[in-house]
Amino acid sequence: MAVTLADIKKLRDMTGAGMMDVKKALEEANGDFEQAKDLLRKRGQAIAAKRSDREASEGCVLAKAENGFGCIVAVKCETDFVAKNADFVAMVKKILDVAMANKPQSLDELKALTLNGQTMADLVTERSGVTGEKMELSDYAFIAAPVVDAYNHLGNKLSSLVAADNAAADYDTVHGVNMQVASMAPVALDADHVAQEVKDKELAIAVDKTKQDEVNKAIENALRKAGINPAHADSEDHISSNTAKGWLTEEQAQTARDIRANVPAEAEANLNMKKIEMIAQGRLAKFLKESTLVEQQYILSDNKELVKDVLKKMNVTIVDFKRVTLNLE
Is the overall model pTM greater than 0.85, yes or no? Predict the structure, then answer.
């Protein structure tokens, strides 16, 4: 059966597959559209299985918001070349539109949604067959609130959503805070919204760092007491190289080695844990200030205002935010 240009265009519009892939599938299926779609899907599944161990670290992230609902969709692929391809970006936009229309409550729900009889998961698999790269619908985030703003960073690798509780909230302020979220990557709205496990982890890190700092101070003090510059003996490599340069005598080098070998255990045994805990709590407080949205310095402020002060001045209350990024910090 001869395949017409109209048939090719119709199947291409339905699947998003390339012209030659569509033509080949229609020819193999003798013009049967459903069979051709199945062939394209199977090709994608074969590619996905073959490349399942490959890393998909590139991709496209897009966000959209309207009428009190916003969502972010991310689809990963292997290369930046494919990520920038117009058909790939168009597919992500199509999935985003389906999400906006149906408001799924999870990534699995989004994957199961259909368009023209095809699930979003199958749409991605099919596209994988066209490009020959591993692809996955990897992230989905959403917010429902009186006001939701969407921000897409140039390059389609980062998107964010910010929600306010008042439908009359100043748009410029909400959008500015959304840019803050995209730029500064806060971990939570405020300290109360930081998960306890995150606080516990950061406190443990702060305790370990403080202990190590106290041990290092003890080593430096012992080196200075022995008449040795700590910068000349902060590692075995430096001790050896500085001895070769004549900056340390052989005797000083051995003394430095003895200090570095023996002082740490003695210092650890005599740590002032009350002091350690106090310093660690201070470090945790610093982390919470730098990493929570309302306590951060507002990036659009000329006089170093905090986000919370800008919000108070504009009578805006931010209630939630989402941020999704690929291969960016």
Answer: no
